[in-house]
Design goal:
The structure is a homodimer of 377-residue chains. Helix content of chain A is 17%, strand content 43%. Chain A has 377 residues and is of the alpha+beta class. Chain A folds into three domains: 118 residues, DNA Polymerase III, subunit A, domain 2 (DNA Polymerase III, Chain A, domain 2, Roll); 115 residues, Roll (DNA Polymerase III, Chain A, domain 2), CATH 3.10.150; 112 residues, Proliferating Cell Nuclear Antigen (Box), CATH 3.70.10.10. A 14-stranded antiparallel beta sheet of chain A has the order 5-1-7-8-9-6-2-3-4-18-17-16-10-14. A nine-stranded antiparallel beta sheet of chain A has the order 15-11-12-13-27-26-25-19-23. Chain A is elongated. Chain A starts with a strand and ends in a 7-residue tail after the last strand. Chains A and B meet through helix 2, strand 9, helix 5 and strand 22 of A and helix 2, strand 9, helix 5 and strand 22 of B.
Chain lengths: 377, 377
Amino acid sequence: MHIEITRHSLHHALQHIAAGLPSRPVQPILAGIKLQADAHRLTLTCSKLTMTLKYQLPSPSEMLTVQQSGSTVVSARYLIDIVRSLPGGVISLRMTENGILHMQSGQSVYRLATMDANEFPDTPPFDDRTSILINNGDLKTIVGQVAFAASTSEARPVLTGVSMTMREGGRSLKLLATDGIRLAARTACIDAEDFGNPLPSIVIEAKHLTDYSKMLTDAASSTQISFGDHDIRFQTNGFSMLASLIPGQFPSTDKLLPPAFGTEIKLDTASFAEAVGRVSLLAGDSRVVGMRITEEGAELFATSPDIGDVTEAVALAWRTGEAITVYFNGKYMKDIVNATESEQLYIRLTGREKPIIIETAPDDDTYYILTPIRSAH
Amino acid sequence: MHIEITRHSLHHALQHIAAGLPSRPVQPILAGIKLQADAHRLTLTCSKLTMTLKYQLPSPSEMLTVQQSGSTVVSARYLIDIVRSLPGGVISLRMTENGILHMQSGQSVYRLATMDANEFPDTPPFDDRTSILINNGDLKTIVGQVAFAASTSEARPVLTGVSMTMREGGRSLKLLATDGIRLAARTACIDAEDFGNPLPSIVIEAKHLTDYSKMLTDAASSTQISFGDHDIRFQTNGFSMLASLIPGQFPSTDKLLPPAFGTEIKLDTASFAEAVGRVSLLAGDSRVVGMRITEEGAELFATSPDIGDVTEAVALAWRTGEAITVYFNGKYMKDIVNATESEQLYIRLTGREKPIIIETAPDDDTYYILTPIRSAH
């Protein structure tokens, strides 16, 4: 293998795939990045087995020349640190006969140990049954609005995922995540679809989806999502992720949305988020924040034993229904309110032990559910 | 106590004194901030016993009105978090009869538990023997250039300090710090002095000096430094630090500077710093970087077993003397080079086991010494 690549392109490619590195590699080779060069392209791969990130650069191009095909695996940590610290210009990467990667740029000459590219785990053969095309900006937005609500506990693996379901005969995609306490749901339009088979609802690890969507900087391009029996592939502009699906049934959430509400308020999102943050300061480790809605208006309150208490009046755009007091996790409420990216919010309540529904518009496909805390202390 | 103060002023004052909070308070009251209001001012105090930070705001003024004198101590963590999260405007702080601090701003009403201000440790009576006036910009610069070289180990307490010595009959102040491996020395001019007694050399905790100087944003003002028998006081624009001196003799460092040099090079600081950084990437945990100076020029090199090695040529402005190879701690060299804030550096060597001298100008009062590592591995 012998390639010449601009520092900018290699740095850009490494940034895209770095999230694919396992934090604790189960095999030494997984701490490496696979470099594979042929006449047409350079492919960089990182793998954590259940998820593989790839970045491809075309050759010959202004940024890359492949002088000699070949492949190798080199320590990800060192490669990333070195490329980050190099000034601009061209980097030459050349395998020598004794298995050393010779890396030269400007006045710097690095010689790095490598691993056998044949040992690097291959991605499984992918059976592309069905695929859709979705705008990158839309995908990034809905992932940001939903994935935070997934569980981080492995107690119920399916809840660490985001459920993806095709709706409206394939014209839209619904994302849903819940950790059992809070739930986020959001629907986005699909640019184009190619249905080979009716699409089942699938579940993908929330962190994988977040890692992929973070790298979507070109909001005008689209991602092709291809659904397999056990895997899912996301592809855009040379960057791709192949991830295993999480097996198991995602819990049904339809019955969580009550048909009618006893109390409903509408308020300004930004000032409510700030108020929840200020009141949460005295909510202690339990993070219990109370909200009291009366005919006079609404107020948030919290008490931290031995420290003090706080009360803050909340301005309402309007209010309808009965007086009610509910308690909830202040951090969870703030996460939800920040995720909505809406100027105004509707909060609907049916009782102090019933789910709190947060919506950005009446009867919208975007909704959040927060399970209240039964008693204040 | 009852005061009204702008959120901006209180936030600004709290930022100044927060570094005076102990990380592990030996008494519960030291986790608090003392607020003391009288007809003329509000004083905020944080104390870690060996160091006390105070901030004073005059009253009445545009930012502060003292409605009723008094003092109290309130949890620093909660006060800082609350004030940070409040929007702009005026904050009213009022002690109620039951020892609760009533704090109101906008729609938020906090009621905080307090501690008895009489329990807060008093600063010792200060015997102001001698004082000098130094420009804040100069003080901030020289502290940044010297304090990093102090030791962080308590094995020799005096080395955790910065030595301050008056020079040139009181027209300049020399700061010096060393951890035994590296040494930094810098001299700054004094604006004005008032010598009651001849001034001994004193030693002050490097971290205290850094904490104080970080807050010096107004480079045009001056700090008055007052020297006592056991303490030192720094004062500028209502902000002050009183710190205990570190007892003990600072090691003599005069004989470390050799009278003549075998080899001398001059180079560009920024490109040398970057080169040291790039080579250090393969220096491993031992951080051993080699520098080889020959008639052809200079190069840096490092080897990390099982990973690889690196060589980088260093451009020299000029070179004089014998060929030599020395090894040093790459991180320490980079810290020194970055601290110099000079465009060009002179590096002087007398042998591979003799101190490496780094200067910003020939025969300057600013110099750095780095003890080499005897062998590469």
